[in-house]
Amino acid sequence: MAYIPRSFTALIEELEKLPGVGPRTAYRLAFFLMNLDEASVKHFAETIVRARSLLRLCSQCFGFSEEDVCPICASESRDHSTICVVEEPRDIFAIEKLGEYKGVYHVLGGTISPIEGRGPSDIRIQELLDRVATGTVREVILATNPTVSGEATALYLARQLEQLGKHQVVVTRLASGIPFGSDLDFTDEITLSRAFESRHKL
Any long-range contacts for 181-184 (C-beta under 8 Å, 24+ apart)? Predict the structure, then answer.
């Protein structure tokens, strides 16, 4: 049996925990890291620890921030009457790269998925309804991913928002330029931009 140092095997196993990284990719990454000089490896590790230590969830939109309230939510130049609802913080980065959307965000922290044991109370739906109930929101853009659970969550949210009565807002959904089953952060900027422009009312 080929000899592989335990520490190297442990590194491979940790790298395999990263999304999209299989055994072969983890093996190559481990060799890449071991070929770096000690200073580079130390800087890489410190950067991960620093990011994990400094980043928190914004108290308003639940996106990543180094402050209690993220710069987007704190900005007076953003349109706070429009909320774009996404599944995860990474989706905010995908949309912000467009440089076109001027509203604010709300991160659900997942989708409704009975198969995976997640119901409406397991994601931040009530927090969204509370924000809309203030009466300052005019449009809610549902930008959940075009997957089965993403579509189900969007429809559930649309029904809940319709029941707010006097706080009723326009509820729109990103257009179908995004392939079904894909994620926003893997969608090219042109397709995502057109999806925003062609969003429709639910």
Answer: 181/146, 181/147, 182/145, 182/146, 182/147, 183/91, 183/145, 184/86, 184/87, 184/90, 184/91, 184/94, 184/95, 184/143, 184/145
pLDDT tens sequence across 31-85: 999 999 999 999 999 999 999 999 999 999 999 999 999 999 999 999 999 999 9
CATH of the structural domain 6-54, one choice from 1.10.240.10, 3.10.180.10, 1.10.8.420, 2.60.40.10: 1.10.8.420
Of the candidate CATH numbers 3.40.50.450, 3.40.50.720, 1.10.275.10, 3.40.1360.10, the domain formed by 67-201 belongs to 3.40.1360.10
As to burial, measured by CB atoms within 10 angstroms (0-12 exposed, 13-18 middle, 19+ buried), residue 126 is exposed
127-142 pLDDT tens trace: 999 999 988 999 999 9
199 pLDDT exceeds 80?
Answer: no
Q: How far is CA 30 from CA 22, 26, 169, in A?
A: 12, 6, 51
CA proximity to 158, closest of 135, 175, 142: 142
Query: Which three-class secondary structure state does DSSP give residue 140?
Result: strand
Statement: the pTM of the whole predicted model exceeds 0.90: no
